[in-house]
Amino acid sequence: MIQRDNRTSAADAVASGPSRRRFLAAGAAVGAGAFAAGTAGVALDRQGALPGSPPPPDEAGTNGKRIVPFYGEHQAGIAARPGAFASLVALDLNSGVGRERLAAWMRLITDDAARLTQGSAALADVEPELAATPAGLTVTVGFGPGFVDRARGARPDWLAPLPAFGIDKLQDEWSGGDALLIVASDEPGTVAHALRMLLKDSRAFATLRWRQDGFRRAYGSDPHGMTMRNLFGQVDGTANPRPGTADFDTAVWARPDAPAWLQGGTSFVLRRIALDLDRWDSVDRVGRENTIGRRLADGSPLTGTHETDPLDLEAVDPHGLQVISSVAHVRRAHVTDPTKHIVRLGYNYEERPARGADTLSQTGLLFGTWQANVTEQFVPIQRALDEADLLNVWTTPIGSAVFAMPPGCAAGEYLGQALLEGPASG
Amino acid sequence: MSRAAFAAAKIPTRAAFAAAKIPTRAAFAAAKIPTRAALVAAIALTLAACSAGGDTKGSDSLTVTDAWAKAADSSMTAAFGEITNSSAHDITIVAASSPAATEVQMHEVVDSTMRKVDGGLVIPAGQTRRLQPGGFHLMFIGLTAPIKAGDVVSLTLTFDDDSQLTFTAVAKDFTGANESYDAGMSMSPSASMGG
Question: How far apart are CA A115 and CA B61, in angstroms?
Answer without folding.
Answer: 26
